[in-house]
Amino acid sequence: MYFLAFVLKNLTRRPTRTALTVLGLAVAVGSTIALLGMSENFRTAMGATFEKRGVDLVVVAAGAPDQLSSEIDESVLDQVRTIPNVVGIDAALVDLTEMQRREPTGPDDVPPSMQVLIQAWLPTNFGFDDMELLSGRALTPADQGHHRAVLGSKLAENMNKKVGDTITILQQKFEIVGVFKTISVFETGGVVVLMADYQQLSGRKGKVTGFSLRVKKSEATADADVEAVRQQLLALQVGSGKRQKLSAERPQKYLDNAAHLKLVRAMAWMVSAIGILIGVISMLNTMVMSVLERTQEIGILRAVGWPRNRVVRMVLLEAVVLGVVSAVVGAVGALGVTHLLALSPTVNGFIEGGIPLVVAVQGVAIATLIGLLGGAYPAFRAAQLLPTEAIRHD
User: Fold this and answer.
1) Which residues in 200-232 are b (16+ Cβ under 10 Å) and which e?
2) Could you tell me which of 93, 131, 241, 318 has the fewest CB atoms within 10 Å of its CB?
3) Beta-strand pair 191-194/113-121
4) Rounded to two decimals, what is the model's pTM?
């Protein structure tokens, strides 16, 4: 207990330097935590959506890095429906496109636009089953050809839209017939329209970007039942007899292989590597200065019986405490930043606020590593000081 109090007292001797070191490390560690947190939140939200809807397989075109860049002929859906044990199919044409923020006020007025996620669904999609309508109604087969849409609650709030208003997508007006909320942040921040209408509007007639499947399975052989359907999907052939190239994976494996998630994680760890390097240099500078300033004190400690390993532990513990405090400050900052971003109309349909506990723990581990690496050389140098030379040091 005395040893820890002694270490903390050493850190508070130069409060300004300690605070600046903590702030610099907190920025580096907090950036990593924020990026990793957003990636993990996306994965968790998508996984929860698949689980709630009872999705057993996610299907996209083989080789497509994500659903946005996938393209599958809609006729494949008819073949999939004939596969035994397929009890539900949720097909979509997903697109990220421009939408006007407001209606033009005159012939020469060009309204500003925004990127919005369009989910073009079949009216029979089981995704409609867990759509919580806040106002209006859901889409029905009778809406086909009339350009009607339902808006996610976040998007409706951002654009100040309600049932009966219109939105303009690809120069086409859509009437809003409902406002909804689901477990998916992307759906809540986007627009759902009927597939046939959007296929024609976007020039992708007869195409979907992917689909999810529910499989009839027994409790004893659930994995085998799903795998059997998966193999039949991979063996599907188009009308000419050529094999339809599909990628069919269990939801968790699909999320593991999703290119956009891999990209975000790679960016986060790249920032982490840069942050570790900067952090180690900053920590090294701080601890070297601290050791130099306390050379005489360290000599006295060695003279009264402190062994070298105790001196090493003292310096390393100081560095680790700096790192852990920086991680806590960085995590709090990352939590605040992600919540502020989640409130921003520009991006709140694409990210969720908050930092998962596992990511915060990773941040603490990174900061601890910075402390150990940055404090290693100063600790070794302090331990090598001879008591007589250290005491005479000016």
Assistant:
1) ebbebeebbbbbbbbbebeeeeeeebbbbbbeb
2) 241
3) parallel
4) 0.77
